[in-house]
Amino acid sequence: MTLWVVEDGQMLIPPSDELKQRIMHAYHNGLSGHPGRDETIRKTLQCFYWPGMHQWVKQYMKGCATCQQNKNLMHKTHALLYKIMVPTNTLPFTQIAMDLITGLPKS
């Protein structure tokens, strides 16, 4: 297998998923300790390059179980609202419903 050196001393990686995975294991899973996507790309670009690298690294990180477990959730999930059932064809303000919360602890 021949590796070519391109600009800035980067090695051009041939289309071999096995080789790309070995590089990612060293630069992402290894001593770096699972840095984020941008940091992984930045560190890998210092030594290696292959066409479609950004997309490939993005897909690799989606499959990284450690990264997915420790990802910060940016969107807050809301609890589902319970819909109070009223008879059909009821005019507004003719039906009153109340939701009582019971069984709460003292403190």
Total DSSP E strands = 3
Number of helices: 4
Instruction: Please outline the major beta sheet.
Output: 3 strands, mixed
pLDDT under 50 segments (min length 5)? none
Please report which band the strand proportion falls in: under 5%, 5-15%, 15-25%, 25-35%, 35-45% or over 45%: 5-15%
Principal-axis shape equals elongated
Please report the distance between the alpha carbons of the first and last residues.
69 Å
Strand order of the largest sheet: 1-2-3
How helical, in percent, are the residues?
A: 25-40%
Overall pLDDT level: 81
Question: From the alpha-carbon coordinates, what is the Rg to the nearest angstrom?
Answer: 27 Å
**Secondary-structure element pattern, one letter each:** EEHHEHH
In short:
With 107 residues, the chain is mainly alpha-helical. It contains 4 helices and 3 strands; from the N terminus they run ββααβαα. The chain has a domain at 4-64.
Account of the 3D structure:
With 107 residues, this protein is mostly helical. The chain has a domain at 4-64. 35% of the residues lie in helices and 6% in strands. The chain is built from four helices and three strands; from the N terminus they run ββααβαα. Strands 1-2-3 form a three-stranded mixed β-sheet, with no helix packed on it. Strand 1 and strand 2 (11-12) form a beta hairpin. The longest helix is centred in the N-terminal third of the chain and has 13 residues, at 17-29. The chain is elongated. The mean pLDDT is 81.
